[in-house]
């Protein structure tokens, strides 16, 4: 990701990233954790980083993703259903 402050620490290709992500999801599942996939809009992430005044790096991606997951969970609970 060219815009990432930590681009040197990221996988070189999407395929490498995907393989790594799938491996981590499998490891979490095997450890009894129920991971959730969170789809991120890059433009939204960039704007969020600007508003927060932080670089777009691993820490920012983690916090942004956690906030998106919380929003998603809150929306599901607020809809009155246990899906």
Write structural notes for this entry.
With 83 residues, this protein is mainly alpha-helical. The protein has helices at 14-30, 42-52, 58-78. The model has no long low-confidence stretch (mean pLDDT 87).
* Approximate strand percentage: under 5%
Q: Helical region count?
A: 3
Q: How many domain modules?
A: 2
User: What structural class do you assign from the helix and strand content?
Assistant: mainly alpha
Total strand segments: 0
Basic shape: flat
In short:
The protein is mostly helical. The protein has helices at 14-30, 42-52, 58-78.
Compile the SSE list and pairings.
Blueprint: H1 14-30, H2 42-52, H3 58-78
Task: Note the main attributes of this structure.
flat; 3 helices; 83 residues; 59% helix; 2 domains; mainly alpha; single chain
């Amino acid at each position: 990701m060219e815009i990432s402050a930590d681009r040197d620490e990221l996988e070189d290709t999407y395929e490498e990233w995907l393989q790594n992500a799938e491996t981590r999801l499998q490891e979490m599942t095997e450890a009894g954790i129920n991971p959730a996939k969170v789809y991120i809009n890059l433009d939204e992430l960039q704007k969020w980083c600007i508003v927060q005044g932080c670089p777009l790096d691993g820490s920012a991606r983690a916090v942004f993703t956690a906030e998106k997951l919380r929003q998603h969970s809150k929306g599901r609970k607020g809809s009155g259903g246990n899906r």
